[in-house]
Amino acid sequence: MRWGTCPVATFNDADDALEFRKDALAWHNELGKASPRSADNLVAALARVLSFAKEKAVIKFNPLDTFTRLYKSHRSDLTWPEDLQQQFMRTARPAMVTAMVLVRNTAMRASDIRKFPWTRYDGRVQPRADPLDHRRPPQSGQDGQAALDPGDARAEGAP
Q1: Is the pTM of this model over 0.70?
Q2: How far apart are CA 125 and CA 130, in angstroms?
Q3: Segment 93-119 mean pLDDT
Q4: How confident is the model at residue 103 (pLDDT cuts 50, 70, 90)?
Q5: Please, are residues 103 and 113 in contact by the beta-carbon 8 Å criterion?
C-alpha cells in the first residue's frame, strides 16, 4: 500500500498536505495511462477516506478534496439515431418495441428493463418505493403510454 504508513501529521500541516497532493496526483496520472477510470476510482476512494478523517477532526487538511478526473464518458455516440429507432420499432417483435419505448421514455438501463414488474405500470411508470434507489425513472410520456398499453406486447414476454 503506497500511503498506508503516511503519518497523520502530514495532513495537519499545509505544506506537507500540498506535497502529498502533488505525489497523489502524479500517481493518479501514472495509473491513468493504463486505465483512466480505475485511476479516478482509486483517487476518489482515497479522497473519501481523507474527507471522513477531516470530518471527524482527525486531520486538518484534505489534500484531495478536489481533483480533475481523467476518464470522460462519451455515451452520446452509443445512442441510436431517430431513424434507426423508428426502423427498429417498425420491424421488431412487440415485446422488443415495448422495451425500446421504456428505454426511450424513462432512460431505464437494460438490467432495469429486464427486471421491470408490470405491477409498476398503471398508464405511467411508477418509481420504486425504495427511498435509497436514486435511479427513479421519469414517467413515460403519452407516446410511451400508447406503445406500452397494448396487452399483446406483455403476452409475448415484455419486461
Answers
A1: no
A2: 15
A3: 81
A4: confident
A5: yes
156, pLDDT greater than 70: no
Q: Which three cell numbers stand for residue 120?
A: 409498476
| Bridge partners, residue 13, by sequence | none
What is the C-alpha separation between 41 and 56, in angstroms, rounded?
Answer: 23
Separation CA 138–CA 31 (nearest Å) = 37
Q: Residues 127-136: contacts with CB within 8 Å, 24+ apart?
A: 135/109
C-alpha cell recorded at residue 99: 422495451
**Residues in Cβ contact with 149 at an 8 Å cutoff, skipping those fewer than 6 apart:** 123
Cell output for 48: 473519501
User: What is the distance between the alpha carbons of residues 22 and 30, in angstroms, rounded to a whole number?
Assistant: 12
